[in-house]
Amino acid sequence: MVGDGDDEIQARRQGESGHRTVPHTADIRVDAWGTSRERCLVEAALGMVECFADVTAVRPTAVERVQFAEAADDDLLVALLDEVVYRLEVHGQVPVDLEAVAMDDGLDVRLAVAALSEVEIVGSVPKAVAWHELHIGPGPYGWSCAVTVDV
Fold first, then answer.
1. Cβ distance 119 to 94 under 8 Å?
2. Distance between CA 40 and CA 144 in Å, rounded?
């Protein structure tokens, strides 16, 4: 994760991907960037996980695949983050690594997951993704997105 705005811009110019979390009134704001739409989506999901869990020393116990039908970029961002919340709430799984690949008919996502019980909880678990002030799109140094996560 990059520290401040100048570092973030420099990282983007060098073609790096990343994310950062910013406190937001009773919520968390995730800013993410990547060289492609798919990498930006992955960074947003990793940023959301990082806001509540330390997964740095956790090894995945399973790999799950999810396919999303082609949709607007903001719909894909919300769908992916909603999938992370769903896996937490229903299956007790936390993604420790993700990979997204664009397909002709949508997006194929691989989630390397671990049990919630194996992860150190460091913050409030996300409950939902807000549409308010959601952004995703290409820019001069690749793709970026910003999303508010209700905790």
1. yes
2. 6
Q: Which two tokens stand for residue 110?
A: 């691989």
pLDDT at 13: 54
Write out pLDDT tens, residues 85-107: 999 999 999 999 999 999 999 99
Predicted TM-score (pTM) of the model is: 0.88
Give Cα separations from 89 to 92, 116, 140 (angstroms).
Answer: 6, 10, 37
SS3 14: coil
pLDDT band at 74 (very low <50, low <70, confident <90, very high): very high
**Dihedral angle over CA of 129, 131, 134, 137, nearest 10:** 100
Amino acid, single-letter form, for residue 140: P
The tokens for 26 are: 């009773």
CB 50 within 8 A of CB 25: no
The beta strands (E) that lie in 53-141 are given as 53-54, 62-69, 93-103, 106-115, 120-121, 128-139
